[in-house]
Every structure is written in C-alpha cells, then in structure tokens.
Specification:
Layout: H1 2-20, H2 22-27, H3 33-40, H4 47-53, H5 60-71, E1 77-81, H6 85-91, E2 96-101, H7 104-114, E3 120-124, H8 150-153, E4 163-168, H9 173-180, E5 184-193, H10 198-205, E6 210-216, E7 225-231
Parallel strand pairs: 1-2, 1-4, 2-3, 4-5
Antiparallel strand pairs: 5-7, 6-7
Helix pairs in contact: 4-6, 9-10
C-alpha cells in the first residue's frame, strides 16, 4: 500500500515538475550524480523514462562497478533474472544478454525496447500453477503464492557455457543465487539487488563468493538501498 502510494505521488509530482521546467533543468545536468538521481525519482516504475535515462534500478555505486566491469570485458555474456530497464542497459554494454522474466504482460513491454537489439534474448518462464514442495521455489508475493518458480530458477540450465555477469533481480533470488553461481565465469560478477532484505542475507553469506555490498543513492528511490556484488 505504501509503495503504491509513493509511486502515485511520484507520478503526480512528475507532471508538476515538467510544467515547472524542473525536469528539463535536471536533464541538462544528468552528468552530475545528484541531478541524475533526482531525475530518476520521477521515473519510478516508468520503463520508458528509465531506458531514456540509461539506468538500471540499482545503487549508483553498483551501476558504476558493473559499468566498469563490462567495459573491461568486451563481448561479455550476461544472464539476468528479472527483465526491465536493466536489460536494455546491459544490452548497450554487453555482447550477449539472456534475460528471463515470469510475468507475461511485463515481458511483452520489455520486448518493445529489445526488439531492435539482437544481442538481447528475452525468455518468458511463468511459474507452474502447482505448489512446490520445496519452499525455495515458492513465493510469498501477493498474486504469486501457491506457484512453483522451479523452472524459472533453473532456466539458466537452458543456456550453454559460462556467464561473465549474472544479475539477480527477480523472483526467488536466494534460490537463483544458489543455483546459478557455478555458472559464473572465472573473474565474473553477480549483481544481487535489494540485498539488504533479511530473507536474502543467509544465501549471500553462504554463497562462498566474495561479497561487496554497495549502499547509498539508488535510482528511483528517495532513501538508500543496497546492491551486493559477488565475485569468485
């Protein structure tokens, strides 16, 4: 309820900011971190705006680190759990991106942006309607309870080879980390978003990977969040 109220308020404020010229003023200063962050506050849950701003919904420190990592690995292969503006951001920097999502309407929206980017392969993997006996593959999110995300978590198995980067920003993130970490190429990076949530801490701590938590300014959010970068 609080999240929906904030998104609604941000969209109302965006109209006022546009009429007042504030958005144009911020757009002219997007090379400044604080101005870019302030501009992103008006783009929450607006994929058109986020693609135009060229921002994934991570902490800015994580964005900088991932950007530098991909710049140092031309032609990098990326696997992403959870499609969105980040998919387009990755496609602009990597050689090949496979992005999987569970939500058909959202998948179709992302397809509009990826249509002209042959380096992006979108995969739609809906949850099974039958509940899973293994709690790792169940979701407590309203609208997705009593479904199994086993196929979603295991979707990386359908892709050959190792990945230079794996992004975990969708459903059942702890299970995704556990299942995908062995597919990370030597020297690779896993981007695990919203890592401050208590339900993810044990999986991150027990991953056996080196962990660097980035915490601070985050695209679209008026408060600091955390994105953890894991390396082997």
């Amino acid at each position: 309820m609080l999240k929906s109220a904030y998104v609604g308020a941000a969209r109302q404020a965006r109209g006022l900011a546009r009429r007042a010229g504030l958005l144009d003023w911020l757009d002219a200063r997007r090379d400044q971190r604080t101005a870019l962050w302030a501009r992103s506050l008006f783009a929450i849950h607006d994929i058109d705006a986020m693609v135009a701003l060229d921002l994934p919904w991570w902490t800015f420190d994580a964005i900088d680190a991932a950007d530098a990592f991909l710049a140092a690995r031309p032609g990098a292969r990326v696997f992403e759990y959870g499609s969105g503006a980040s998919t387009i951001w990755l496609g602009r920097r990597a050689g090949h991106v496979v992005s999987v999502d569970h939500d058909a309407p959202w998948h179709d929206i992302v397809k509009r942006f990826a249509a002209a980017m042959p380096q992006i392969a979108l995969r739609m993997v809906p949850p099974d309607a039958v509940p899973d006996a293994d709690p790792r593959y169940r979701s407590e999110k309203p609208g997705w309870r009593d479904r199994s995300f086993r196929a979603y978590v295991h979707s990386i198995d359908d892709e050959p080879g190792e990945f230079d980067m794996i992004v975990i920003d969708g459903r059942n993130r702890a299970a995704c980390l556990e299942h995908s970490k062995d597919r990370l190429a030597p020297g690779g990076m896993i981007v695990f978003d919203n890592s401050s949530r208590s339900r993810y801490r044990a999986a991150i701590a027990g991953s056996g990977l080196r962990c660097a938590e980035t915490r601070g300014l985050t695209a679209c959010l008026p408060y600091p969040d955390a994105t953890t970068l894991l390396t082997n």
